[in-house]
Write a structure and sequence with these properties.
two-stranded parallel ribbon; 37% helix
């Protein structure tokens, strides 16, 4: 039986890439790469969208440098909660603007929840199709935004 390579989500199709270290990128397109790890990651994403999973348990290939440090910090934000760019900046010892850039460069949205990071005076951006509207949908889905 072929392994799945794409998950259809409320935000559109999602596929994944992996390296020897783990899942390395989430793509907002149909995918072609398949493996046992990608199949497991897609199954966990499906459970997450269905509300049956709160924390992903996957080998991840974090980017080097500040982006990887910020990815790890974002990964610690519990479902249903948010932090600001400034709060993450204090955690990692970097300026908020650098944290915003690292969030925007996050290759693993959803799995590494950059949507849980907000601006001091608003939602901030989101790089998925649908932009900020997708971020609002995700925050509502997780119970972090009740508006």
């Amino acid at each position: 039986m072929p392994r799945p390579s794409t998950l259809v989500t409320p935000l559109g199709p999602v596929s994944l890439s992996e390296t020897e270290a783990g899942i390395s990128a989430l793509h907002w397109t149909e995918g072609h790469q398949s493996s046992p790890l990608i199949a497991e990651a897609l199954a966990q994403l499906e459970a997450w969208f269905a509300g049956r999973l709160e924390v992903f348990d996957l080998a991840l290939d974090f980017r080097p440098g500040l982006t990887g440090t910020v990815q790890r910090a974002m990964g610690q934000i519990p479902r249903g909660q948010t932090l600001t760019y400034g709060q993450i900046a204090r955690q990692v010892g970097a300026p908020p603007q650098a944290v915003g850039q690292a969030c925007g460069a996050n290759p693993l949205p959803l799995i590494v929840p950059c949507h849980r990071v907000l601006g001091a005076k608003g939602l901030g951006g989101f790089s998925a199709p649908g932009g900020v509207e997708a971020k609002i949908w995700l925050l509502r889905h997780e119970g972090a935004l009740m508006v």
